[in-house]
Amino acid sequence: MTETNLAPTGPAALARTLWRDHRVWLASAFLVAAVAGLDAGQARASVSFTVTSLLQTAPYLVLSILVAAWAMATGADNLIARAFTGAPAVMIGLAALAGGVSPFCSCGVIPLIAALLAMGVPLSAVMAFWLASPVMDPSMFVLTTGVLGLEFAVAKTLAAVGLGVFGGWAVHLVGRAGGLADPLRPGIGNGGCGGGKVRDPKPVAWRFWRDPERRAKFGREALSVTLFLLKWLTLAFLLESLMLAFVPAESVTSLLGGGGLAPIALGTLVGVPAYLNGYAALPLVGGLVGQGMAPGAGLAFLVAGGVTSLPAAIAVWALVRPRVFLLYLALSLSGAFSAGLLFQLWGLL
Q1: What is the tens place of the pLDDT at every residue in 56-91?
Q2: Predicted structure pTM score
Q3: Are 111 and 105 in contact (CB under 8 A)?
């Protein structure tokens, strides 16, 4: 008798498959349906707000998509491998800079970190890249400029690189005391999809259009990034419209406004559980700033959420030993708070 492995069928299996593959779109649809059940006028207003916001963001959206697809098609992301050689000061600085500007895919960051550590790259340089990478990249810079303005985009870029340098040197000093040996959990470190970029970096093909395979890769990446950004920005703009409609501006101002330390500290802490992802968070922060949120608190929210969002924290916990994980959290939160505070002080000058 021959056994045949069949995929589970039935309504429950279909629902699980749909949710797994399209959960962000489904969440947006459920959100609109729920609002329509309570207030049809607000549902129409929210859909109109979302469409208008997407159209206004379209030029920046297209540019960010082209940048991401170009980086993958040319292999420019392979340049990251050059940041992890040299003296500690050079490695930390270059790793932080590479993390702040590199367009690494989200699936490759954690495996890359595992590969770097398994290959014996100092934790200080790895941490510099690790802290800076989720906060900013070229596509994020373009979209941040479109949603929050050029000054905010520049501040976020400087915060990413500064956080990387701060974290790298902090780890370097702690490591000299002998407290961070063997940072990976047992059995971790084959490197996955990101490890090859470091082990065997390929040359960059700047004129990628001459290679049919690279042209096809450009098209695939452009489509992938387009769908990714559209689904998250649609959900984010829907949430922003509801926030503007139902969250009183005076409440935001009282909690997150003003020039003291409390709004920045609260923005740092709230960023961890409330952060969706880097692209979806931009419209939410834009709406909050428009309602009175202190710019420093907004930057602290974006930096803290980008580095220590719950999915990222779970992945880090699974990768490194507890002492490294706790240091990672401490550096992330303190660095985000410092970035917000400096941005707030800059605005007062």
Answers
A1: 878 877 876 787 788 778 876 566 656 666 778 888
A2: 0.65
A3: no
